[in-house]
Hints:
Elements: E1 5-13, E2 25-30, E3 40-45, E4 49-54, E5 61-62, H1 70-82
Antiparallel strand pairs: 1-2, 1-3, 3-4, 4-5
Amino acid sequence: MPVPHMGWSSLDVRQPGLGLQSGDYVYFAHSFACEDGLHSVATAEYGRPIPAVVRRGQPSRRAIPPQRSGEAGARFLEAFLAS
């Protein structure tokens, strides 16, 4: 897959309360992705599952720029600020 990953990908959300839903499309702008692991709570398919949101304690870490991800990004920011 091309690097950097610049563009829209749909999510597989594994944990509620993120403000995101499986099937939401979010924007990615990165050139590195770690392996999917225990703390991945949302992933995107990019030749393999890549972490989009990682949670270990509070707060969550994300690989998506919410401000560029439309309605899904706005919901994510709202949930993040409320946590």
